[in-house]
Amino acid sequence: MQHAEFVVHRVWDRGIRWFHWINVVSVLALLGIGLVIYNGKALGISGDAKIWLKELHVWVGYVFALNLLWRIVQGFRGSHFARWRATLPFSRDFLPELRAYLDSLRNGKPRHYLGHNPLGRLMVLVLFLLLFAQAITGLVLAGTDLYYPPLGSWIAQWVAPAGVEPASLIPGDKSMVDAAAWAEMREFRSPFISLHILVFFALLGAVALHVAGVVVTEVKGRVGIISAMFTGEKVLPEQPVDTPEESIEK
């Protein structure tokens, strides 16, 4: 279906769209709960309430991590624009394409892409590195804070004193643990919590930058970049730079 010089292209498949919106909701929920936990003392949150918030944070984190794992699989087995080669900035021609795209922006005639433009690919790389780091450190902290999987049983065995069943340990209760083992465990945990907090704030900045980039691209390009994550379709000039042979047009 052709409209003057524009053509409607199907770009994002259902799997990518579901991943995107599940990721948006889970990341926002994790950021919100994390901010409350981080400022627990200032907010007057009790110890029991903090444990409950951490448990909620972990359960949302499981959704987040499983969704991220699903995206990894899509990167190898998904549709053309879901594949890593079309998403990350590692192709041989990326740097020349980045220069060409920046030149087109300076000239006021931006090059159009069905998938991510070169700056978008860089942003995707940054976001995925931060998301992966947050998922990995979060899973470690779930074990050290609450004895939750996948490391929880190992952590509980580490800190449980002789004669105490590891499964009976209560999160936040230090009276049931071996003091020396607990100190060792907390030392092991320390770099993970530091990285988790650092990435937390880096992710806040990256999300803000990502949203700003999407809005600017939408306003300047008017190519339906936002609506495409709902419909899967982009409205672009007839000759986008990255049109694959298998691209479906309507």
Task: Provide a descriptive summary of the structure in words.
Strands 1, 2, 3 and 4 form a 4-stranded antiparallel sheet that branches. This protein has about 250 residues and is mainly alpha-helical. Helices cover about 65% and strands about 5% of the residues. It has a single domain (about 1-250), classed as Transmembrane di-heme cytochromes, Chain C (Fumarate Reductase Cytochrome B subunit). The protein has helices at about 15-40, 40-45, 45-75, 95-105, 120-145, 150-160, 180-220, 230, and strands at about 1-5, 5-10, 235, 250. The chain is elongated, with a radius of gyration of 23 Å. α5 (about 120-145) runs antiparallel to α7 (about 180-220). The chain contains 8 helices and 4 strands, in the order ββααααααααββ. The longest helix has about 45 residues, at about 180-220. Belongs to the HupC/HyaC/HydC family. GO terms for molecular function: electron transfer activity; heme binding; iron ion binding. Its main location: membrane. It comes from Thiohalomonas denitrificans. It is a multi-pass membrane protein.
Compact summary:
Residues 11-232 form the Cytochrome b561 bacterial/Ni-hydrogenase domain. With 250 residues, the chain is mostly helical.
